[in-house]
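Request: When convenient, would you put together a sequence paired with its structure tokens?
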Amino acid sequence: MDGSIDKVSPSRAERHPEKAHRPDNPIPRKPEWIRVRAPNSPEYAETRRLMRQHGLATVCEEAACPNIGECWKHKHATFMIMGEVCTRACAFCNVATGKPGALNPHEPANIAEAVGKLGLGHVVVTSVDRDDLEDGGAGHFAEVITALHKSAPRTTVEVLTPDFMRKVGAVETVVAARPDVFNHNLETVPRLYPSIRPGARYFTSLRLLARVKEIDAAMFTKSGLMVGLGETREEILQVMDDLRAADVDFLTIGQYLQPTPKHAALDRFWTPAEFDELAAHARAKGFLMVSASPLTRSSYHAGDDFVRLRAARAAQLKT
């Protein structure tokens, strides 16, 4: 394949050098409602082969998503662009931290080709943080979106971007490429940012989401939260209010699962009934779409959710 690259993944010991000195946090046993089967379907193997063939990374693998078996069985994957090494060191994240390599100029075309082979109607594109780049990687996002629009004009495109902190014009560049959904996750409540997202700022992330709507009020916006890091119910409800003030359309809420003993300690497992309660509150606050369950992730069932999101807006406009 022209322009394909070999994936060189850091070893387990090298993935998180910034966490090596931390004391171990025991990983609690998962409750019944959150256990998933190990991936072993032929479709999973074929999707994995396709990713390797095109030299592509997926957040499904790099972040150790629990839904990978289900999603890849249906040939749904979330592409992670700009490499597999992140310049940030979030305490919850399993993506490797370090000094990233150069951008692959063939990546937009490779992703477009893989999307065609998978026959995707909806594609999610995310990335590592690239604080080392002048535009934070916004231009590369735009190239990927443009390549997808050109090669698969009927495929809807959802981006899950970094916060582009101090990258002037980055949000404008991505919006100008016209993704169908612009997603950026707040991840947790403001009080926990110093320990959970030390490289990020809550109001920077919130401002990014508001800015998307200022540029294009019709573009769908989306954000996600994890629970189980020590947040309170009242703090989550306040974040919901902040997101609605930024006119965010779609909220996802899922359970934090501790990747290794060196990652942030799991505070507790929220029950399915508690997720249902959070979803009810979010709907009452005016979100067009809400997905809240223990296994919910930003791109989980994203294609089906986008269809419902578009229908919800159409129904809203009729009232």
Summary: The chain has eleven helices and ten strands. The CA atoms of residues 71 and 77 lie 7 Å apart. Confidence is low (pLDDT under 50) at residues 1-13.
